[in-house]
Fold:
Amino acid sequence: MRILVVEDEKHLADIIKRGLREQGYAVDIAYDGDQGQYMAETTPYDLILLDILLPKKTGLQVCGELRAKKAATPIIILTARDKVGDRVQGLDCGADDYLTKPFAFPELLARIRALLRRDMTDKSPKMSVGTLVMDPVTRQVTQGDKVISLTSKEFTLLEYFMRHPNMLLTRTMLEQHAWDYEFDGESNLIDVYIRRIRNKIDIKGRESLIETTRGAGYRMVSR
Ligand code: CA
Structure:
């Protein structure tokens, strides 16, 4: 999953980016409102963390304009302590949640996970496809009784598949949601990763959980 952080305090933005990357998220940073809005409009982010007090354009303006353009990306606004008005305005302009600065990182992570599962019909934190089960909280993946060990990027890709079962995911979509702008990989990188993930999650003698659609992309199916 890929997250946009719009935050002008460079130190805080860097801490958030590092922390989220450690959890396997792809992360881009915008340091002012204009840049944030531009990036949000041109890249398919899964979630946006939006500070309110920003140079050029406030977070409230950015949020309002994105919603006016029908962008449905979940937005968490970051507000200063004691600014009840900011929180109210933030939610009124279309943000989904808010977090008061300074915040505890585990709380930020929990709110991100809650928003990412909002659109899923099954609200339980665990996701499953057939006998493959992923717990985004503990980051444990199991196939039947077997615990599967995945690298951070393998986990990110598999999570994207499991959040979109039966949907055709193109290489571009997979790249856009699993890697950020610092990504500078080979064109066949996705295929290499899919091969590694299949080796880990598939059951011997059965067809792969990740189906290839020639020339189009991949689809996760329950077998
Ligand atoms: Ca700020």
Remarks:
- The radius of gyration is 18 Å.
- The helical segments are 10-22, 33-42, 59-68, 84-92, 105-116, 152-163, 171-178, 189-201.
- Residues 8-9, 51, 53-54 surround calcium ion (CB under 6 Å).
- The mean pLDDT is 91.
